[in-house]
Amino acid sequence: MISLTAAGSVGLGLQAFIPASSASPFPHQSGTSAATASSATSPGTVPPASPVSGTSSPDTASADAAESGLAGRRVPLKGNINHSVCRWTFSFLGIRELCRVVKETGFSAIDLVGPSDWPVLKQHGIDSSMCNGAEISLTEGWNHKEYHPALIKNYTEHIGLVAEAGYKNLICFSGNREGMDDETGLKNCEEGIKKVLGLAEKNGVILQMELFNSKINHPDYMCDNTPWGIELCERIGSPNFVLLYDIYHMQVNEGDIIRTITDHHKWFGHYHTAGVPGRNEIDDTQELYYPAIMRAIHNTGFNGYVAQEFISTRETEAGKIASLAEAVAICDI
């Protein structure tokens, strides 16, 4: 047992676009702390560029470069990291436009997409790398028994939908504490999740509970630290229940990112990124060194997805799209 004390139009042709200035990046709510460089197993596959250690070019320059293609170069992705992007962070684009951006950037997956948009993803050859839609909310989760009837109904339906669509990952949440202690939360989550786990196992669907920080973005969220999440995984005891390790959130709440990934990767089925502090671009304006984190992930033998979940600070659509391409290049070790 592990101790619980740790607490419009987008045809920009961005095939891993790197600005010339670069050297040899359901609506989650947004939130900050310090992993350093050092040296990374779950579902997916794609090709990756010289790791960009961190770039932050002006919005206008990036936008102009993206539109003209004259100030940048295209670098094929290497295939060591399977890239994705979270739908909600590009909500200013329609789903079809986002699919085109994703393909033009050189990868083929989008996170946090529900059943209504899956047909569009399939038309574009895009994987729904982390499905959603079964949850009640981020705050009303498996740790409170009063939500179990609705959650069991929702997840029973969605597990079937995910499997029928040929997808694999389905997100879930612990919910908020509301005065509940760790042990009660663990028991309640285990009891509820086990009621849909057999169906998930039968259909090859992996339920993934996301780790959030409770310090800034999600006050009172229960699954806010790695030890608690791992304890739940051990109690459930199935490869069809794992953790979605959000690098941004866990840097804010506990830090020690690379060692945590290296030591506990078998419990992590998916990764999310963003810069700390601010949850913005993953360039050199923030404290995390993503090339080293990606190498640590790759060194574990991980073959799942790493999804960008930063909120771009750039003002134009072209600038935000350029930020995505830069983030993919940074993570493409």
Strand order of the largest sheet: 3-10-9-8-7-6
SSE string: EHEEHEHEHEHEHEHHEHEH
| Largest sheet geometry | 6 strands, parallel
CATH superfamily of one domain, by name, is Divalent-metal-dependent TIM barrel enzymes
Radius of gyration: 19 Å
- Secondary-structure class: alpha/beta
Strand content: 5-15%
Count of individual helical segments = 10
Residue share in helices?
25-40%
Q: What is the mean predicted local confidence, pLDDT? A: 84
CATH C-level label of one domain: Alpha Beta
CATH architecture of one domain: Alpha-Beta Barrel
Globally, the shape reads: globular
Distance between the termini: 34 Å
CATH-defined fold name of one domain = TIM Barrel
Total strand count, please? 10
Stretches where pLDDT is under 50 for at least 5 consecutive residues are 1-73
Structure description:
The chain is α/β, with parallel strands linked by helices. It has a domain at 38-82 and 132-299: TIM Barrel. It is 35% helix and 14% strand. It has 10 helices and 10 strands. It has helices at 59-68, 95-105, 118-123, 148-165, 182-203, 226-236, 247-253, 257-264, 290-299, 317-331, and strands at residues 17-19, 72-74, 82-85, 109-113, 127-131, 169-172, 206-210, 241-246, 268-273, 305-308. The strands form 3 sheets. It has a 6-stranded parallel sheet. A two-stranded antiparallel ribbon has the order 1-2. Helix 9 (290-299) links the parallel strand 9 and strand 10 (305-308). Helix 1 packs across helix 10 (317-331) and helix 8 (257-264) runs parallel beside helix 9 (290-299). The two termini are 34 Å apart. The relative contact order is 0.23. Mean pLDDT is 84; it is low at 1-73.
